[in-house]
Each structure stands twice: as structure tokens, then as C-alpha cells.
Amino acid sequence: MANLLWLQGGACSGNTMSFLNAEEPSACDLVTDFGINVLWHPSLGLELGENLQKMLKALTAGTLALDIFVFEGTVVNAPNGTGEWNRFAGRPMRDWVRDLCKVANFVVAVGDCATWGGIPATAPNPSESEGLQFLKRGHGGFLGKDFKSKAGLPVINIPGCPAHPDWITQIVVAVATGRGGDLTLDEFQRPKTFFTSFTQTGCTRNMHFAYKVSATEFGQRKGCLFYDLGCRGPMTHSPCNRILWNRQSSKTRAGMPCMGCTEPEFPFFDLAPGTVFKTQTVMGVPKDMPSGVDKTGYIKLTAAAKAASPRWAEEDIFVV
Amino acid sequence: MANETNDENVAGQIRSLLAGGLKTEVFPRADDQDSVAEILGRLREAGGDISAGLVIAGFTLQPVEHGGIEQACETCMYYLVHRRFCELPELAVPVEPQWSCRLWRI
Fold it and tell me: How high is the ipTM of this complex?
């Protein structure tokens, strides 16, 4: 039996909604099949008021074991580093977070806000938000870059806005069943099993990417969304086109550009007007290239691919 | 077929206008997102007026070299190779591979 506690900081509850929709395994499977004891969760917990405080104190005192601490949302430090804007169970949430992270075997940050600050930490960041161990790309965050949980791992980051439900439950199960040591993390402490390939991997528009045919409107089934509509699929690490959403679709499959929400810089360009859903260019060349591609190579490849493109690439080949 | 004939007619009309000395705004090129947005806004205001569209978009009958890159329609992201057509919604006109405009993007 592994005790799991889930708390929310500066959050919209999007990751909770995502988690509750998990299918493989489901939130119920965590309890019935994998022996996870959900001590408390903002949408599922029964304890209120003093009872909840008692439980949290027992956890921080070490009289109740905390195997997995899941945190959703940013650590709110405002005003002036006090955290008073986000109070919970009688004290600033940031104080609970610091104390709980000291006693937890594993700490899991779920969603962009908990991992690197996400939208709340976008300039000017009025809530003085930060992620547990990152602030955007900067290593450190609330807990500091040297933090390790009792099991010896840094915070396990499962980013996304929201994170896919199955990424959450599969990592929680891995940790709860003693396979936490098998997890390999990338430089941003994301499990490599999910965040090594790109959103573009498995995208149904890859043919159009290859032949440089652009989609020019949302929802168009023909064309690649990277060239004009700001899709970040070629430079975003996520399995969104391998582990599908609702088991059947993804943003790009539905004709909407990937916004790069599993990367630390999300939301990109600080949401400046004209930067969302529009590929940013410098003298006609994309500002952000597909990962690993340089400008010269990109221009040469594009010219050659366009010249070689077949007629069907310009037509809508999806007849249903 | 009707589409192709119409495309040919419009392409011929564009060729005549440009060869006849229509002064278009070749420079400044749309080097950043602000200038792209500004030009697109003017194109929307111009509606379907081909002549106004050519002027605003800075059409030429030859490629324009800018920043060391030859900006020809044939390498532009909006160009449909087989239909010889510019698919940018604000333009949507038949074009030739060697033509150019300042909204070029790759």
C-alpha cells in the first residue's frame, strides 16, 4: 500500500480533470489494482478543516508515511515572498509544500504550472509563481536544483497543459509499485519514456510536412500546421500523437496547432499579440526551426521537397 | 477545367498589369510578424481587387533576393506547385514559379 497525497497550488484544476479521465490505468485502478491509498485529493478527499490539518501535520511529522506527493499548480510566493496569496489549511501552501517534500519518498509535479511555472509565471508574474524545481528553463525553482526526495530522485516532472491522464497514472503506478528506480529522466526531469519523441512523431500531417504543403486555416485536413499556423510539433517533446487524447485524437489531428505545452517556455513569446497560432518568421524563415535543423539546411530541403511534391499532396485526400 | 481556365485568365491579367509598369510595394519586405500582420490587414481591406492586392503584396515578375535568399514563389510555403497557385487566403491568386512578393515565407 502506497500513500499518495495530491495538493494544488496556483492551479486551474485542469490536471485534476485530466487525471480523473485516465483510462490506462484509471484513477479507480490506482486504488483497486495497484494498492494506492489516496490520502487526500482536492476533488476526492473527504477530510475537511481540522481533520485535514491533522493529517497534514502527521505527514510532516513523519508519523504517517508519505510515499508519493503529487503537486499541481504553481508555488505562489506573492506577496513579497510570503506565499500569503495562496493559503491552505491554516498556512501558506508553499510552507506545506516545503515540509511535505522533505518527507516524501517521491515528488511528482503534474502540469506546466507545477513543473516550470506555466501561464501564471509568465511575465510580469504577479503571483511570484514558480515550479517545484524549475522556473521556465531555469533549474532551481522553489525547492532548489539540488533537491532530491527520500528515494533519491529529483522532482519527477510530468508537464502539459494539461498533462495527458495516462502519463500521470502510469508514472504514479510505476513509482507506487517499486519501479521508480527504473525511470530515466531527461534534462528537464521529464520521464524519457514519454518525452523523448516529438509531438510530430505519429502526426497524420507528416506527408504534408515532408512535401512542404501548408495548412492555411484551422481545421483544414490538408497541409502541415508548422509553416504558417504556429504549430510547435517538430520541436516539442511529447507523445501526443502516439498516446492519443481520448484514445482517438490529438490537436494536430483535429486541425489545431501544437502549442508546445510540454516545454519549459510555454506559453511562448509571453503571449504577445500575434504570436499565438502564427509561425514567427525572420525575413520569411521560421524563427524556431524543427529540432536539430539549421537554417541553411532547412531552406535547401524546403526548395527540393517543394519541387518534388506530388499532385496529391496539394489535394484533400481524406474523403470521409 | 473551368478552374484552370480561370486561373490562366487571372494569371494573364496579372502578367499584363506587372509588365505594363504597375508600381508595387516591393520594399520593405515583410521581415517580421508585425509587418506581415500590417500587410495582411491592408489586403483584407482591399477585398478582391487584384490590382490593389498586387501593389500591397509587392508582386514582381522576377524573384527578389533579400538577406541572401532568393524569394521566388516556387519556394514559398503558400505556393501550390501543380496548380501554380498562391494559397495565402488574403491573396488566393494564380502565380508563376519565378514571380515573387514580399509576403514570401519558407
Answer: 0.88
